[in-house]
Design brief:
- 41% of the residues lie in helices and 18% in strands.
- It is α/β, with parallel strands linked by helices.
- It has four domains: 100-241, Alpha-D-Glucose-1,6-Bisphosphate, subunit A, domain 3 (Alpha-D-Glucose-1,6-Bisphosphate, Chain A, domain 3, 3-Layer(aba) Sandwich), CATH 3.40.120.10; 248-362, Alpha-D-Glucose-1,6-Bisphosphate, subunit A, domain 3 (Alpha-D-Glucose-1,6-Bisphosphate, Chain A, domain 3); 367-484, Alpha-D-Glucose-1,6-Bisphosphate, Chain A, domain 3, CATH 3.40.120.10; 517-649, Alpha-D-Glucose-1,6-Bisphosphate, Chain A, domain 4, CATH 3.30.530.
- The strands form four sheets. Strands 1-5-4-2-3-6 form a six-stranded mixed β-sheet, sandwiched between helices.
- Strand 17 (551-552) and strand 18 form a beta hairpin.
- Helix 2 packs across helix 4 (49-56), helix 6 crosses helix 7 (141-154) and helix 13 (363-380) crosses helix 19.
- The longest helix is centred in the C-terminal third of the chain and has 30 residues, at 620-649.
- It is globular and about 80 Å long.
- The mean pLDDT is 95.
């Protein structure tokens, strides 16, 4: 040990090991873990100071959404690899203070369970508080879930642990259905195989927001993974969740369909579905069959596998992730391809155009189609009327296409814009629930969809749709996060409607463009890994704030809006929390938003262009020419942004 400590000191003095990393390494060694000693020693002896810096330059920050980071290092040591496993996973999670491992899972759960117990007592709630736990198919997810259950029961909370992998939206539903005080999902969503995460929800089923987020953060950061278990009599118990929750959840999902008869017309809608080796098949496949949709699963991707062996990345935003599904759709002559990410909160789609070719849709396009369809049919069915439409709302993030706002306003329905992150949409849902009469609130979670809708249209706001450009959507109030299960069935209904009209989904989208104008968006990002990368991202964000560009690609910047420093309110008059995001309005109907990712080592760019028809509506020829022209303009804009970013990070 003394030799290793000397090596650490020498590397720190030479500048090859960051002072913060050296401090965290010494603290980890002092804990006495034989595995940690072996891992650190191997990395030090092989001169992998870059790897040690990335693993130890900070203690993983417990943010407002929880934790996310690497659970498998770029360098896998012999001690971590172990004897080898048939699934290709290392025996042990990555050792480091800046990694997803037992240390950080226990540390986070200690803080969360302590906060929940204190909150439960302050609120004078009866019995023991409970925390629901779900997990996806990623490496170490089940082990982390079991560890979290142990810590929280040791500290006096019941653990409502799903018996097998389940989706993020079902976890949100379970928190509400079981009246839990909180919930966690062990997932890194659509990140690559080497990542995992810890996503926290509160008693309303939404991701934690103020004041609970800061309260939990403070307790997590106040200590490490050590704690003193309560006496046997005061400890909680592990309660398994399974089919009961699945059935209740599917029953509510089915009620989201506005016109179920569309699924019973011939020929039946045919969709290829893939969960990309994640949890989506648990609910989606049986539910589609129940609705009358012919669902053809991609068999190789139905297999739960944390390596995600058939894709480069299990992200339905990426065309490559849908390739096997699209190949199968050509064989089966399916109408759609639908894919969900590993924790089943995002959905990607490929649909046929008028020529029969499968076309990949963006998250903005998918959401716009659902907004338009749901509003149109809700009015046609008499659920929404001229009288009650002031009590309906569409919610979207600020970086989501403005087409959705135009559609909502076109139907006379309010549109509210939030910061990026579905937790902000969920917090709006909670606020609308809290506007209901007390007697309705007391029974709200167990009222039917029709009953809650009637109550919201009478005394509050009826949540029609919530969406983000990053392939996240929600159409129901019984889940307070984006819901891939709801998205799959509700988009299938859009496709069934288009087929009943004798057109394709892509043609339906063109009809919407013709009426509201052509909106095109492009999402790009620059990735900067590790400690050096984090510094570059900060430098770039600071640079945009301090010296914003005067023009992009020859187009003048008309205005700059900094969400980190300015006081900004939403359309309901509510102040928006400060967030590191800058929006540039650019001449010629262009807009650029820039923000660092909250979950990945990236800085994200959102590019927007809008063009309205000169004569009120586009002809097919005009629309085709407009699409080509606008896409070329966004490509030019992105090349300019990349070149500018290179200069700013030099």
């Amino acid at each position: 040990m003394s030799t290793l400590l000397e090596s650490i000191a020498t590397a720190e003095a030479a500048g090859t090991l960051l002072p913060s990393a050296a401090e965290n390494v010494r603290a980890m060694l002092a804990r006495g873990s034989l595995l940690a000693v072996e891992v650190i020693n191997e990395l030090a002896e092989s001169g992998r100071w870059d790897e040690l810096n990335n693993r130890f330059f900070r203690t993983m920050a417990f943010g407002t959404g929880g934790l996310r980071g690497k659970t498998i290092g770029e360098v896998i040591t012999t001690a971590e690899a172990g004897p080898g496993r048939p699934d290709g996973r290392p025996e042990h999670a990555c050792i480091g203070t800046n990694a997803m491992n037992d240390y950080n899972i226990a540390r986070a759960t200690r803080g969360l369970a302590t906060y929940v117990r204190q909150w439960h007592e302050r609120e004078n709630r009866p019995g023991r508080p409970s925390i629901a736990i779900s997990y996806d198919t990623r490496f170490f997810s089940r082990e982390f879930a079991d560890l979290a259950a142990k810590v929280m029961t040791d500290l006096g909370c019941d653990a409502l642990l799903f018996e097998g992998p389940r989706s993020t939206p079902e976890l949100s539903f379970a928190v509400r259905y079981k009246n839990a005080a909180a919930g966690i999902n062990i997932t890194a969503s659509h990140n690559p195989p080497g990542y995992n995460g810890y996503k926290v929800y509160f008693d309303d089923g939404g991701q934690v927001v103020a004041p609970h987020d800061q309260g939990i953060i403070d307790l997590v950061n106040a200590g490490d993974d050590s704690y003193e278990p309560l006496s046997e009599a005061k400890r909680g118990q592990v309660i398994k969740l399974g089919r009961e929750i699945d059935d209740a959840y599917m029953e509510r999902l089915e009620k989201l369909i506005i016109d179920s008869e569309l699924f019973h017309r011939k020929p039946a809608l045919k969709t290829v579905f893939t969960p990309l080796h994640g949890v989506g098949g648990v609910i989606i496949v049986p539910l589609l069959h129940r609705l009358g949709v012919t669902c053809i699963p991609v068999s190789s991707q139905m297999v739960p596998d944390g390596l995600f062996p058939t894709v480069k990345s299990p992200n339905p935003e990426y065309p490559e992730a849908l390739k096997l599904g699209m190949d199968l759709a050509e064989i089966e002559r399916a109408d759609l391809v639908q894919a969900t990410d590993p924790d089943d909160d995002r959905m990607g789609v490929a649909a046929r155009d008028s020529s029969g070719k499968l076309v990949l849709l963006t998250g903005n396009q998918i959401g716009s189609l659902m907004v338009w369809y749901r509003l149109k049919r809700l009015f046609e069915k008499g659920i929404l009327t001229e009288v009650n439409r002031d009590h309906a709302v569409v919610i979207k993030s600020l970086v989501t296409t403005d087409l959705q706002k135009e559609i909502a306003l076109g139907f006379g329905v309010k549109c509210v814009e939030t910061l990026t992150g579905f937790k902000y949409i969920g917090s709006k849902q909670r606020a609308y629930e809290e506007k209901l009469p007390a007697e309705i609130q007391a029974a709200y979670r167990h009222l039917s969809e029709e009953e809650t809708r009637e109550a919201r249209l009478k005394d509050s706001l009826y949540f029609v749709f919530g969406g983000e450009e990053s392939y996240g959507y929600n159409t129901g109030d019984f889940v307070r996060d984006k819901d891939g299960n709801a998205a799959v069935i509700c988009f299938a209904e859009v496709a069934a409607y288009a087929a009943n009209e004798g057109i394709t989904v892509v043609t339906l989208l063109d009809k919407i463009y013709s009426e509201y104008g052509f909106y095109l968006e492009r999402g790009e990002s620059l990735t900067f890994e590790g400690a050096e990368g984090a510094a570059k991202i900060k430098k770039l964000v600071d640079s945009y704030a301090q010296t914003p560009p005067a023009e992009f690609a020859g187009a003048k910047v008309l205005s700059v809006l900094n969400y980190a420093t300015e006081d900004i309110h939403d359309s309901e008059g509510e102040p928006l929390p400060k967030e590191a995001m800058i929006v540039f309005e650019v001449a010629g109907g262009l807009k650029v938003a820039v923000r660092p990712s909250g979950t990945e080592p990236k800085i994200k760019y959102y590019l927007y262009a809008t063009e309205k028809p000169a004569s009120g509506t586009f002809t097919p020829e005009e629309l085709a020419a407009t699409k080509q022209r606008v896409a070329g303009g966004l490509e030019k804009l992105w090349q300019c942004l990349k070149a500018d970013a290179t200069k700013r990070t030099a």
